[in-house]
Amino acid sequence: MPLAHPSGHAQVDFGEAIGVIGGVRQKIHFFCMDLPQSDTPFVKAYPAETTEAFLDGHVSAFAFFGGVPLSVLYDNTTLAVAKICGDGRRERTRAFTELQSHYLFQDRFGRPGKGNDKGKVEGLVKYARSNFLTPIPQAASFDDLNAMLEERCRQRRGERAGRHGETIGERLVADLEAFGDLPAVPLEPSEKRAARVSSTALVRYRGNDYSVPTAYGFRDVVVKGFVDEVVILCAGEAIARHRRCYGTGTFVFEPLHYLALIETKPNALDQAAALKDWDLPEAFQHLRHLLEARMGNRGRREFIQVLRLMEAIPMEMVASAVSEAIRLGVIGFDAVKQIALARVERPARLDLTAYPHLPKMDVRMTAAADYAVLVPGTTA
User: 352 pLDDT exceeds 80?
Assistant: First the structure.
């Protein structure tokens, strides 16, 4: 049946392909939004087809087009539909309701199992797989891959689709004129879940455990799962941020979260799982040997105190302070702390190139004869 597509409407679906990301061959899930009237595409790849990817795809697509479609047509994905009632009415998921309430577009759903109800975006999935993701793409990261996909979508605007005499970009004008305005602030594309911190300061999210500072043990928290980050909040305050893990059964530690506890139990320094794979500069290990050789167990405790400086000061600055303390022969926590604080608090040097109107000074060594001008009756 020939179909007519009015301006300002969109269709959404996910597709799958194979790619090599960071040297690892893996399955790619790519989000597609198609504007049927103009055939304008938007494609973005993700490690998995998840709620946060679904939300991020919409937020990125709306930003890419510079507006919000009047309506979006979906299949009955569980990312958007929690339940199909007997009368055909859909109960939306909480995340999808939040998305729709933020951007104020109408949702439409195809019949279950009838992909032809949204044939345009089905065609985009096949087109993107054959033209954007073939041959198998290789990228250092998903960010690099998505930069390539966005550029290909922009290039597509200069092409013609079907029997249309105008380019896709020329036909896009009518879609954009019908679009609604973007909200002042984009939606935060995250899945939110309530959780509880375990006795070992870990919070479970999607089959993986993420650490928080030990002071928050047994507390109730909220986990925000983003595409590339997991943020854990307690009483509205972010207490931990981790890179998102898409494996299962993985422990994701931040060593700094456990140092306060290890300071009270210094013998656990070499057995703590959180510190096992901590890649510290060589200077730290050198400092530890010197401290323990001079002070024994007290030296180990001071070394832990040095590590805790990184709770407030960047690792690079603390490592530099450690190296300087070793060079000066001042081996101890107080010395490292003072050197690090001096570098943090030291004001930036004034760049005189930004003040060309100031006269240049000629500074020379003082000679005794220069003081002759101060004696009455003498000349220099």
Answer: no
Q: Over range 257-265, report the average pLDDT.
A: 95
The answer on 161 and 35 residing in a single domain is yes
* 118-135 core/surface letters (b: 16 or more CB in 10 A; e: else): bebbbbbbebbbeebbee
Structural domain includes residue 58: yes
Q: Are 15 and 128 in contact (CB under 8 A)?
A: yes
Q: How far apart are CA 291 and CA 294, in angstroms?
A: 5
User: What are the start-end ranges of the H helices in 157-237?
Assistant: 168-178
Task: Name which of 271, 270, 339 is nearest 306 in CA terms.
Answer: 339
Residues 195 and 83 in one domain: no
Report the pLDDT value the prediction gives residue 59, as an integer from 0 to 100. 98
Same domain, 320 and 266: yes
Residue-level pLDDT at 369: 77
Taking the C-alpha atoms of residue 321 and residue 96, their distance in angstroms, rounded to an integer, is: 50
CA angle 149/21/232 to nearest 5° reads 95
Count up the domains in the chain and report the number: 3
Segments forming the whole domain that contains residue 204: 191-252
pLDDT at site 109: 93
Stretch 59-76: mean pLDDT, rounded?
97
52 pLDDT exceeds 90? yes
Both 150 and 203 in one domain: the answer is: no
Tokens of 160: 């013609």
The DSSP bridge partners found for residue 20 are 25, 138
Of 231, 252, 273, which marks where a domain is finished?
252
Residue 266 lies in a domain: yes
Give the Cα separation of 11 and 34 in Å (integer).
5
**Which residues make Cβ contacts (< 8 Å) with residue 162, sequence separation at least 6?**
39
Which residues, 6+ apart, have CB-to-CB distance to 79 below 8 Å? 49, 50, 51, 54, 93, 95, 96
Contacts of 273 (CB under 8 A, 6+ apart): 251, 253
The pTM of the full predicted model, rounded to 2 decimals, is 0.84
CA-based end-to-end distance of the chain = 106
Q: Which amino acid is at 5?
A: H
Residues 144 and 18 in one domain: yes
Answer yes or no: do 35 and 171 share one domain: yes
**How many other C-beta atoms are found inside a 10 Å radius of the C-beta of residue 140?**
11
| Per-residue confidence band for 110, with pLDDT thresholds at 50, 70 and 90 | confident
Instruction: Say whether pLDDT at 380 is over 60.
Output: no
